[in-house]
Amino acid sequence: MMRNILLLLFLLFSLNSYSQNELKKIFKFSTFYAAVNGGTSLSNVDVYSVTDGLTTTTIETPFDYTLALGVRKIARMGYEPKEAFKKGQENSFSDAATIGKVKGFEFLFEVDYKRQEGIEYLDQHHFLRYVSECGNDKCTKPICIKNFTAKIEYLQDGFADIEYFEASERYRYKYNNKLSFNLGAVQRLSEPYGYDPLEEWKLSNGNLHYTYLALEEGYNVNFISHDIIQYLDPQGNIVAENNEVWEAVVIPQILADYTEKKRDQQNNTIQHSLVIGFDYYHYTKTFWLHSWGNLMPWHYDGGSEFSYHNFNDGEQWYDYSGGLIFGYKYNKNLGVFIEGKYNKYWNREWHDFSVGMNYIIF
To answer: Which residue from 71, 75, 101, 99 is spatially nearest to 86, judged by alpha carbons?
Structure first.
């Protein structure tokens, strides 16, 4: 994936393709930022045992942190406040919108190295968005080829376990200055999310032959006596001495490691889809509404062994995404807001939202 991103950057920003003035124009008003953010994680937990007398073990969770590196050039919507500094913690829901506030190029490239509740993640979000529309020379035809939008995006969300590269090309029909509709094609490159590594290990009754799978992965079982059993890992270490611990603790970890290994061994698959969408933006100082949505109702079946069509019993499915940003100030004191975005791709779902009210006392 990263090789594709680097190639994309090279093609778009190659000095052989752009003059110095053109490069300045592209990066004008963009912001490069680097920031480290941290804080306390889960509190320490005391675990007690009476197996060999009373013993106490303290489980400590290291502090949370995020190292953010990025560059962005995205015009602020009217409802977005201006920050003194970019800290990498900004959660701008409008970044996911299909159409930006201005015409031309906008981009975001951000990498986050983070630790959350003791687990480390690598998150990445990169995109290039280009919006074109008629200028003062309004088109007289019902369909104008000057109205189009294109977007190239790479997303890796370790917490949501989703990673894909997406390119879309769409014709945009402006119903009015606030509402527009779009229609086009989307190409997505990702791991085969329809692939189930455990399918081949399932028995006819639906249960899993997990012990045989563990043996194939290098684990061993020693029957010391009729009531003493030792379970050993591939390095020969004893990991369980009874069936309860073997099934409740060791087997789940074996299955997790196995599925991750098998998924990593698979080549990425490309999915061609039809997309239709809309974008609505209205703003005043006391009321604003920004909403967008995308629906992929049809997907080309290339006949791949690990195609999501096979996972979905050969049927089509709906992938979709959308967002809503709403704010209303009743008066100088009281205001309410609703913000959120939702994505459903394949068998993955991820979302963010924020709802609340503000009351200012003068």
So the answer is: 71
